[in-house]
Amino acid sequence: MLYRILSFVFCLLEIFMLSMIHGQTDDKLFVKGTAGFRFENMNWSIAGNLQGSNPNIKSELKWTDLVIADFSVSGHYQFGNRFSVEAGGSFGKTIRGNVSDIDYLEDNRTNPSYQLHIKNKKGSDYSVFTHAGYHFYPSESLELVPNLGYKFSSHTYWLSDDRIEQGGITLNSSYKSNWKGPYAGFNLFYKPNEKFTVQTNLQYHQINYSADANWNLMTQFAHPKSFEHSAKGFQILGSLTPMLRINHKIKLLLDLGYLYANTGDGNDLSFMADGSQGYTRLNEVSRSYWQARLGIVFRLLSD
């Protein structure tokens, strides 16, 4: 065991010394913009009581096969060869998809009492982030950048259909969710030549989740806030980004990524039309997507 520990320590020292020898960068300040699509699924469910029973799944909402147009911009500044900071944001607009709302009377999704399946017609989201990184250079062609940061993202999902109405009011219910918290990750850059670079990125986020909804056709609920959710969870994000240098100022890129997010159980707090409130168990919230974006990098300042 001692031999393994010493070997690991010496390995880290070797990487650090190599990074001191080979440390170099020519991109001091640059901005990056991307545009593309995300293909997303999102769902949550609640139980009949705080103990998670009666039944264990009382109501379940699923947004599936969402196609979202996504736009992002970020800026990166590097202090010498070692430290850097980056900040940016994104905006998404839902183009199409599906949504279902099913209520059950018995455990394990049996004996449904209500079912709604409609096309998803709208939705939007945005996110902002910032992180700081420290740069290692194990060789002339490799760069490793561990980073620590914070991210906030907000997503509004809808159940909307003009053909469904009650009392002259059409279905237009909304569910707005927020995911926020710190993250740790790393970027790895492989540069086999001056023209081509491949970047891989991996991040782990610790999440505080909150959401509120307006179920506009449900007369037993209060409006505009019918219920709210809270829970803690995590998300994992990974991406692969090949980049091609066009000239000393411009790079083109293809960004391919995947995200998975999940919460543990939490609370569902309902606000009733008569002024009363009631808690039940939020079983979980789950979200995942694949994304593909094209982008451009402008170098504004170099060493």
Protein architecture, described:
It is built from one helix and 13 strands. It has a single domain (2-301), classed as Lipocalin, CATH 2.40.128.90. The radius of gyration is 23 Å and the shape is elongated. The longest helix has 21 residues, at 2-22. Strand 12 and strand 13 (277-301) form a beta hairpin. The protein is mainly β and 303 residues long. The two termini are 45 Å apart. Strands 1, 2, 3, 4, 5, 6, 7, 8, 9, 10, 11, 12 and 13 form a 13-stranded antiparallel beta sheet that branches. 26% of the residues are buried.
> H/E element string?
HEEEEEEEEEEEEE
Poorly predicted regions? 1-25
Biggest β-sheet: count, sense, barrel? 13 strands, antiparallel
Strand content: over 45%
Could you tell me the CATH topology label. Lipocalin
Count of runs of 4 or more consecutive helical residues: 1
User: CATH H level: which superfamily?
Assistant: OMPT-like
Percent range for helical residues? under 10%
CATH architecture: Beta Barrel
Beta strands, count: 13
C-alpha geometry: elongated
Distance between the termini: 45 Å
- CATH top level class name: Mainly Beta
List the domain count as a whole number: 1
Rg (C-alpha, Å): 23 Å
Class per helix and strand makeup: mainly beta
Mean pLDDT: 91
